[in-house]
Amino acid sequence: MAKIAITWKKSTIGYPQDQRRTIAGLGLRRLNHTVEHDDSPSIIGMVNKVQHLLEVVAVPTAKKPARKRAPAKKKS
């Protein structure tokens, strides 16, 4: 599943209480704090609700390097 990085960029002063709770529900604690979440419908819905306060970036997924196998031992 894809991941997204969410950064809190604008204060919630003057915004409704439900938007403040959404910011807290995303796990953001202070301005410029960044968290990573899976790209799920519930998280996307929360981000859309407070998109004017956030910055969202897709996190690239790195492939794991293939393990090198040791050469097979010859039977004598």
Can you put this structure into words, describing what you see?
- 24% of the residues lie in helices and 22% in strands.
- It has 76 residues and is an alpha+beta fold.
- The protein has a 3-stranded antiparallel sheet with strand order 2-1-3, with no helix packed on it.
- The chain has helices at 17-25, 41-49, and strands at 3-8, 34-38, 54-59.
- The N and C termini lie far apart (48 Å).
- The mean pLDDT is 91.
- It has a single domain (3-59), classed as Ribosomal Protein L30, Chain: A.
- The chain is rod-shaped and about 80 Å long.
Let me know the CATH homologous superfamily. Answer: Ribosomal protein L30/L7
Order of helices and strands: EHEHE
Summarize the biggest pleated sheet.
3 strands, antiparallel
Unreliable stretches, pLDDT < 50, 5 or more residues? Answer: none
What CATH first level would be assigned?
Alpha Beta
Estimate the global geometry from the Cα principal axes.
rod-shaped
Number of helices: 2
Count the beta strands.
Answer: 3
- How many domains? The number is 1
How much is the average pLDDT?
A: 91
Q: What is the helix fraction of residues, given as a range?
A: 10-25%
The Cα radius of gyration reads: 20 Å
> β content, as a range?
15-25%
What CATH architecture do you see? 2-Layer Sandwich
